[in-house]
Amino acid sequence: MTPAPTAALHADSDPFAVHRLAVGDGHVLHVAEHGQPDGQPAVVLHGGPGSGCSPLLRRFLDPRRYRIVCVDQRGAGLSTPRGAILHNTTADLLADLGAVRRHLRLDAPWLVVGGSWGATLALLHAEHAPQAVAALLLRASFLARPDEIADFLAPLGTVEAVARRFDSGTQDDRATLARAWWAHEQRLASGHVPALDDAALARQIDRYRVQSHYLAHGCWLGDRPLVARCAAVPRVPTLLLHGRADRICPPHGTQALHAVLPHAALRWIDGAGHDPAHPAMAAATVEALDRFAASGRFEGSAR
Predict the structure, then answer these.
(1) Among the options 274, 275, 278, 301, which is catalytic?
(2) For 49-69, what is each residue's pLDDT tens digit?
(3) Which pTM value belongs to this model?
(4) Reported CATH class of domain 5-143+222-295
C-alpha cells in the first residue's frame, strides 16, 4: 500500500536560525535554517513564483542529516514587502541565492531541491553558479514556455490582462480573480478546492500578483529558453520526478529536459499530479533525498 504523506515525510523541526537578509531595493528575504548546522547543505526552492516555503517542503529532507535552507523569494512568504513586483525578476532571484550563500558563509556546494517554478529556478541557479551546486532534485519541472503559460491561464484571460488586473485593478477585482485562479489551480492539482478565509485570500492575491508578473514576462527566459540553457548545467547527480497525471506542468516538459540532461535520472510517478503531497510523490521524494544523504547520489543518476 502507498504510504500516506504524513507517514512518508520526516518529522518537522524548529529552525535553528532565522535570518532577515536585506538584498536591496527595499526587499528583505526571510531565510530559515532547519536540521543540523553541520549537516549536508540543501536549499529548498519553492514554486509559484510567489508561493513561499511551506512546512511540507522541508519535511522531504531528514533534519538529522541535512542543513536545510528555506528561502522565501522576493515578494513571497514571509519576505517583505509581500506581493511586491518592483525589482523582482529572475535575475534578482539568482543574485539573491548568491547573497544567501555569502550571508550563511557557505563555501561547500549545496543540494538544490525545487518543484514546479522551484525546479526552473534550480536549473537556472546551476547554470548561473555551477560551482555552488552539488546535486539537483527537480519535481514537476516547469519550462515557462509561452504556449503552456497561455494554456494554463486561458480560463482567466490573457496573461497580460491577468497581470494588469493584479497590478492595477481594484481590491474587489483582485479578490474575484484570485478566487477564480485558486479554484482553477486546485482543480487541476488535486481536484479539491479548499475554502479561503480572508487572511488566506489576501495571501493568494499577493502570490498571484507576483506569479502573473513573472508569467507576463515569460519569466525572463524569452531570449534563451530553459532547454537551451541546460547545456551549461553541471553534470552533478540529477533526478527528475514527475507525476504522470500532472495537469499544471505537462509531463512532456520533463521529457524535453531529460533529452538535454542525459546524465539525469527520470522517474515517473504513477497516479500523481502536481501536488507534492500526493502519497506516491511524497514517498518518492523522501526516498531519493534519504539516499542522497547516505550515498551522495540518486539511484540511476551520475555521481
Answers:
(1) 274
(2) 999 999 999 999 999 999 999
(3) 0.95
(4) alpha beta
